[in-house]
Design a protein that fits this description.
The structure holds 2 protein chains of 2 kinds.
Chain A: E1 11-18, H1 25-35, H2 41-53, H3 70-75, E2 82-87, E3 91-97, H4 105-112, E4 117-123, H5 130-141, E5 146-152, H6 161-178, E6 182-187, H7 211-217, E7 231-232, E8 235-237, E9 249-253, E10 258-260, E11 264-268, E12 272-281, E13 284-286, E14 288-290, E15 294-299, E16 310-313, E17 320-331, E18 342-347, E19 350-364, E20 369-371, E21 382-395, E22 406-410, E23 417-423
Parallel strand pairs in A: 1-3, 1-4, 4-5, 5-6
Antiparallel strand pairs in A: 2-3, 7-16, 8-9, 9-15, 10-14, 11-12, 11-16, 12-13, 12-15, 17-21, 17-23, 18-19, 18-22, 19-20, 19-21, 22-23
Chain B: H1 8-26, E1 30-33, H2 38-51, E2 60-64, H3 70-83, E3 87-91, H4 92-97, H5 115-125, E4 130-132, E5 149-152, E6 180-183, H6 191-201, E7 212-219, E8 222-225, E9 239-245, E10 256-258, H7 264-272, H8 291-297
Parallel strand pairs in B: 1-2, 1-4, 2-3, 4-6
Antiparallel strand pairs in B: 5-6, 7-8, 7-9, 9-10
The chains are: A alpha+beta, B alpha/beta.
Chain lengths: ~425, ~300
Amino acid sequence: MKDTTGYLDMELLRFSTAGSVDDGKSTLIGRLLYDSKSIFEDQLQAVKEASKRLGGGEEVNLALLTDGLRAEREQGITIDVAYRYFATPKRKFIIADTPGHIEYTRNMVTGASTADVAIILIDARNGIIEQSKRHSYIASLLQIPNVIVAVNKMDLVDFSETVYNDIKKEYEEIAAVLKLKNVIFIPISARDGDNVVDASKKTPWYQGETLLHLLETLPVRKDETKLPSRFPVQYIIRPHSDEFHDYRGYAGRISGGSFKVGDEVVILPSKTESKITAIDEGNKSLDEAFTPQSVTIRLADNVDISRGDIIVRKSETRPTVSANVSLLVCWLNHRPLNEGGKYIIRHATEETRAIIKDVHFKVNINTLENILDDKTVKMNDIAHISIKTLKPLKYDSYGENRITGSLVLIDENTFETVGAGMIVHNLEDETYTI
Amino acid sequence: MSNYKLTHLKELESESIFIMREVAAQFEKPALLFSGGKDSIVMAYLAYKAFYPAAIPFPFVHIDTGHNFEETITYRDELVKLLGAELIVGSVEESIETGRAVEEKGFSASRNKLQTVTLLDTLEKYKFDAALGGARRDEEKARAKERFFSHRDEFGQWDPKNQRPELWNIFNGKKQLGEHFRVFPISNWTEMDIWQYILQENIPLPSLYYTHEREVFERDGIIYAALDAIPRRESEKVEVKRVRCRTIGDITCTGLTLSSADSLEDIIGEIASSRVTERGGRSDDKRSEAAMEDRKKAGYF
């Protein structure tokens, strides 16, 4: 019998990777998978064959491990967010690999929306380019807690400390402007593996950690459990069976803080008060549950609660309940945002409709300046807008809570997800720099 | 003071349960696709947990190729009874008889591809608007790009270049009449996570997953069960070996692994040291480099 207990007690870290075309993003992921032995022989064999067929000769193109769709392999680009998995004895990792080219900003926002860490790749030969700034802006906009700047292709600049330091210095200025939270720099060569898993002998001037070691030790987002408690009601469980005749449970995923049996709670928007009598997880009952657990809460009183309502602890800061919402939106669709138009809104477990009241300004995410004279919000644009919803939302700002502070806009006719919104109370109060 | 630390398995479980509840809340008539394999077994237990003590609010749908291991069917029927679920069976045999599907010929003939016809017909017949599937993104490179809520047009097809962006934990299941969704709650699980979860939750599995003696034969480096469903060439001789299934599908495309693992701990140890993916034993994926992508576009699981 083998010891498997260690495997059952790992933490999960989600990170996103962003880079420009040819920054070696896919190669880096291939390298992480390969060096952590998460690549299997049959996958490697398929990649070897494909490398040869696509004219790469005998050299194995690790990028082919991640580029899954036919068109991607043929064009040598990444089209969509690809999710990759690997584990070390310490952690399990989920990578959202997002394409770097300009027209796919929407995918980067998508991939970054759940990330604990963003890895931004910079080609050592080219230094910081507009796309690096764009990626950094998105990391700032989505408030990713940790940013790792991987200066890649160090082998092509002879592992020069000066090149690395110049890039670092320039990036630190950008990071300061963007108020990025925790920025860490690493010189690497994804192709050859320098400082990815093992420390490189070619960078004796670099005293920091390897990329993998960093990923294994960076703190996983724990702040969520310290936030004011939030429980968006997702589904009502009523068994209608003889055995559980009077059972009425509110199912959902805790989206901030924690809840205990006995807690005095308030249900929003009705402001009805009650007390938690049980927290169920499957057929087990818990004394306490916390973010991001999916549980079923039972209350002392038979109150009128439906999907979309939010349960919060009575003693804690409550979310804003209002139909007027101000947000930064990243536009995701070919059809531009229609000022004055109506959209379906999904916020936590709530669905309602909204009208776009105002487009205040767009952001030029290359120069980070506000654009006031052109208010046409097109695909990949970021804009500050105001909406009025049919039903009031119960929201926090995105800076306070990623779940109750975010929403999506859905086209009323095509039902496509067209906008990603991050709620702001007051732009000056937020960490955003715009 | 509590230690608010969630293990990766608890976090994955929580995410999957959240998605199953979203499906129950957002769709009128969902169904859970049940193949009898370990992934769909985990799905069945997650569904049970998500709605307990209420009954699972959607039926299980099994697309039966008629080429199943006997143990799979026995296990399926017992599980359905245990969890109190409803079972609907879509028969590939019937699709062939009615001329909806045409059986492949030759030694490597498989009914795997024909399942798509039966699956789409079954979804249509019962007017299911969401089909929960146990596919994982780590299984195959085309699956790595699929959303949790995967939109299908009125022909049941997947358009990988035009997928809806999926942000935070907001899932958009809105659709036009005639369209449906495939939903994959265990997208973020790996093969290892599945086995660890089965161990942690003490989930009983079909005996096929553990080592057993069986008459087998070898073709193109893959070991198959020597059963009538797979016609053999004269040169392919039958031997008795100790094997187990790493995945379970249709007999004709399920490769067996030489193994002496007779406990979950052994299986986990075996997978941890394995150098071949579980789909490496699936002949359906070896047909071409983009085999899975092509089948998925046509409406496969």
